[in-house]
Write a structure and sequence with these properties.
Blueprint (H helix, E strand, L loop, with lengths): L2 H20 L6 H4 L5 H15 L8 H8 E4 L2 H4 L2 H5 L6 E3 L2 E8 L5 E2 L4 E2 L5 E2 L2 E4 L3 E8 L2 E5 L2 H6 L1 H6 L2 E6 L5 H7 L4 E8 L2 H11 L5 H4 L2 E5 L1
Length: 225
């Protein structure tokens, strides 16, 4: 990887993360709702994002947004089996952790799966937005989300879940998303999860797993390390 590409990767990643962390909801339905075709909304959103993070529509930045910013149908997330069946009404605290529901507004930006690696060395983070808002359960420690059934998690684990069968081993429990989704598959006979955080284990056992059938949860074994 040459120095110019390495610089571009770092610059785009840093500015994009600042956007997603600090002001992901500056783009609203009032601004982008007028674009009825998804391809038009994507084009305008990409240009607006480059302006918001103070990179402008010239190479190499246009390639980063063209290959890394996409519109999704909110049902891909809101109708997800885990998200649809487990919703947090009132916040639940366990130690320093809080089980809560995260709201995503229409046209709010979010991380959207694994980076795209290009032949020339560019590493392009994937970012998404939807026309409609939705929510998903998450676990926060202070202001930081440490585990979530987020679009990022759903997209990153999609292929692994499609392949899951037989006995499945998982390093890290998180909010229980992968364990539950794997156990819900008829092809999966058992899910063994290694986890060291007692608060995560307690939250999942006491609250998350209760939203799902015994047939699913009985397949899950948590090994406390």
């Amino acid at each position: 990887m040459n120095e110019a590409v390495q610089y571009s990767n770092g610059e785009y990643f840093t500015k994009l993360q600042n956007f997603l962390n600090d002001f992901p909801d500056i783009f609203t339905e009032e601004i982008f709702g007028r674009y009825k075709k998804d391809e038009d909304a994507e084009t305008m959103y990409r240009a607006a994002l480059l302006g918001a993070i103070e990179l402008y529509d010239e190479e190499p930045w246009s390639e980063y947004v063209e290959k890394g910013v996409h519109i999704f149908q909110e049902k891909e997330f809101s109708e997800n089996f885990f998200v649809k069946n487990f919703k947090v009404g009132k916040d639940i605290k366990k130690g320093k952790m809080t089980l809560t529901q995260k709201n995503i507004k229409a046209f709010e930006g979010f991380a959207a799966g694994n980076d795209r690696n290009e032949m020339d060395g560019k590493i392009i983070p994937q970012t998404g937005f939807c026309r409609k808002g939705f929510s998903y359960p998450c676990i926060a420690e202070g202001r930081e989300i440490v585990a979530a059934a987020s679009p990022d998690e759903i997209l990153k684990t999609k292929k692994a879940l499609e392949k899951a069968a037989g006995e499945v081993s998982v390093d890290g429990l998180g909010i229980g998303y992968f364990a539950v989704m794997a156990a819900a598959k008829p092809e999966v006979t058992a899910v063994k999860v290694k986890e060291s955080d007692k608060n995560l284990i307690a939250l999942c056992r006491e609250y998350v797993f209760s939203a799902f059938s015994k047939d699913i949860i009985s397949k899950i074994e948590i090994v406390a390390e």
